Fold this sequence. Notes:
Distance between the termini: 43 Å
CATH class: Alpha Beta
Family: Belongs to the ABC transporter superfamily.
GO molecular function: ABC-type transporter activity; ATP binding; ATP hydrolysis activity
Shape: globular
Pfam family, one: ABC_tran
Number of strands: 9
Strand order of the largest sheet: 5-6-7-3-8-9
Largest sheet: 6 strands, mixed
Keywords: ATP-binding, Nucleotide-binding, Transport
CATH architecture: 3-Layer(aba) Sandwich
InterPro entries: AAA+_ATPase, ABC_transporter-like_ATP-bd, ABC_transpr_TagH-like, Bact_Polysacc_Export_ATP-bd, P-loop_NTPase
Bound molecules: adenosine-5'-triphosphate
Amino acid sequence: MPEYAIEVENVVKDFRVYHRIYGSLKSKVTSLAKGLVRKEEHSGFEIRRALNGVSFQIKPGEAVAMIGSNGSGKSTLLSILSRVYLPTEGEARIVGRMMSLLELGAGFHHELTGNENIFFSGAMLGLMEEEVAARYDSILEFAGLDHQAMDLPVRMYSSGMQLRLAFSMAIHLDAEVLLIDEGLAVGDEGFQEKCFRKIEEFKSQGRTILMVTHELDHVERLADRVLWLNKGVLEQDGPVDEVLREYRRTYFS
Length: 253
Ligand SMILES: Nc1ncnc2c1ncn2[C@@H]1O[C@H](COP(=O)(O)OP(=O)(O)OP(=O)(O)O)[C@@H](O)[C@H]1O
């Protein structure tokens, strides 16, 4: 077994935020010529630093929650781990088969049917077609979706249906590392409870979870450890009770 399932080393992420151009092109060119626009506006964008030197490691079998106020960089970090974005500096590594539930539906191919998405994701995770077929009924059963729905393109699914299918695929297709971004907040209570129990089972099998959430009761129930991001910097990394005590003192007292 590798020492770490997830390793993040000094990750920096900068985004370019493009300025909106107001007024006519002629007036813009005239002001540029007269030197009326500041230098960074000449190039049409500014740099927004979403992550500023974040480092941590997660061992196989750990369930870690990432918390922090809006805009603190949580989704950006999960997107880097999911290879949606490259870091500007530093490195982010995952060892093992990873599945990510980023913002809803992000992992799906929307023009493909539910069926096709299941087999496609299975192949991406390195499973043979027969192996996916052997899990097919369990995927549908857990998701509470029928065969008819499976023949429709995923773009026709409601957000709840997408969540059910994505979560069910993640836990049945043998992912070793699961990244979840706020996903569970969308499901109804019954489905959430089913997901919690599955996540507990997933943990007990030595698999790794990193989840982003604003729901502190979900953190208390599922996580062994908490990462608190604040304005792109890791403010705290520690046991659930310690970090949440400090977090609540900062934001809720
Ligand atoms: N594609 C992008 N282009 C420009 N800026 C971005 C982009 N994605 C994120 N940002 C900026 O990076 C910062 C971190 O955003 P991020 O979505 O990672 O925060 P978050 O902690 O997940 O927030 P929330 O809790 O609201 O989901 C914010 O300032 C955001 O505006």
